[in-house]
């Protein structure tokens, strides 16, 4: 028979509680966890019976943490922090030239430079296994929090995470979005105003994706209506294909355009004002002192010192053709 401690502190129970505390929405939390809403509700009620107090309460349709819930949340974060620190301390004694490095990457990021670097790194360090995982930004933050990935490659600034104290970032390159279109009247422009980009329909990323959210904010700041979206896809390759087949517009990062411009049947121009952001490594504080992670990051820096990021993107794209 399980003890009270085993019932409370099972990995599944805590992950369910944390996800609901993060979203404050049973439906959304259940979808992210890959379970049904009744199953999530049952698990939370079971946890509340075990601790002897309600962890959440509702005001209208809005969910809130109770005092007991806030106490449980602090305790849960403390437990995860202790486990993460123990894991990092164990790994810090490991060999720089062996082991596994898990990296979460946004699906919207052009990956050719990272694949090229990984191939080079493998030749130098054949006993280090590098695992790249395509994720949404919410999945990345969850797995960073739970120490399930060592590094994340994503765009900044990202307001998904409210508490940056446990994390560090290392910039890879400054990025900007390009407007891709089929209007010959705009073809020779070096920059295009937001108001000139909405005459034709668009294909875009889903609204929850960083680039879609970031672009929404840019249009809002320019006080221009957001373009009419006729389709949404999760990878830049899907956007490219739909763009070519239909003649609609879109916006894609400059690095992706540089890597695939020969495949894109559209004109590309920067926005005015420019829509800029940062591509960066994100990791938990102290993670870069683990020998194999430290060596990986330092070698990547050297890789870009030898040749800049956009050149690496173009170089490795040519090799793949």
From TrEMBL:
**Domain HTH lysR-type, chain residue ranges per copy:** 9-66
Keywords per UniProt: DNA-binding, Transcription, Transcription regulation
* Coiled-coil region: none
Entries under InterPro entries matching the protein: LysR_HTH_N (IPR000847), LysR_subst-bd (IPR005119), WH-like_DNA-bd_sf (IPR036388), WH_DNA-bd_sf (IPR036390)
**Source organism, top-level taxon:** Bacteria
Task: Name the Pfam families for this protein.
Answer: HTH_1, LysR_substrate
Write out the similarity annotation: Belongs to the LysR transcriptional regulatory family.
What is the recorded name of this protein?
A: LysR substrate-binding domain-containing protein
**Taxonomically, what lineage is the organism?**
Bacteria, Bacillati, Bacillota, Bacilli, Lactobacillales
């Amino acid at each position: 028979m399980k003890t009270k401690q085993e019932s409370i502190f099972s990995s599944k129970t805590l992950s369910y509680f944390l996800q609901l505390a993060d979203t404050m929405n049973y439906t959304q939390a259940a979808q992210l966890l890959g379970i049904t809403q009744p199953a999530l509700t049952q698990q939370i009620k079971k946890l509340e019976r075990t601790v002897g107090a309600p962890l959440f309460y509702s005001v209208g349709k809005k969910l809130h943490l109770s005092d007991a819930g806030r106490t449980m949340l602090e305790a849960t974060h403390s437990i995860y922090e202790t486990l993460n620190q123990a894991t990092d301390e164990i790994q810090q004694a490991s060999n720089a030239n062996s082991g596994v490095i898990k990296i979460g990457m946004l699906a919207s990021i052009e990956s050719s430079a990272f694949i090229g670097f990984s191939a080079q790194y493998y030749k130098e360090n054949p006993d280090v296994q590098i695992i790249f995982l395509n994720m949404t930004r919410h999945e990345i933050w969850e797995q960073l929090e739970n120490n399930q990935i060592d590094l994340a490659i994503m765009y900044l600034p990202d307001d998904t995470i409210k508490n940056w104290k446990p994390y560090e970032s290392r910039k890879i390159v400054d990025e900007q979005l390009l407007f891709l279109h089929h209007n010959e009247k705009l073809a020779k422009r070096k920059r295009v105003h937001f108001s000139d980009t909405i005459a034709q329909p668009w294909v875009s990323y889903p609204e929850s994706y960083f680039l879609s959210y970031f672009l929404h904010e840019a249009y809002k700041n320019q006080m221009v209506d957001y373009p009419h979206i006729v389709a949404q896809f999760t990878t830049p390759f899907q956007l490219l294909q739909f763009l070519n087949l239909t003649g609609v517009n879109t916006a894609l990062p400059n690095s992706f355009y540089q890597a695939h411009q020969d495949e894109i049947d559209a004109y590309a121009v920067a926005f005015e004002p420019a829509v800029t952001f940062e591509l960066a490594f994100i990791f938990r504080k102290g993670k870069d002192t683990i020998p194999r992670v430290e060596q990986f990051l330092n070698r990547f820096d050297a890789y870009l010192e030898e040749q800049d990021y956009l050149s690496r993107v173009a170089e490795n794209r040519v090799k793949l053709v």
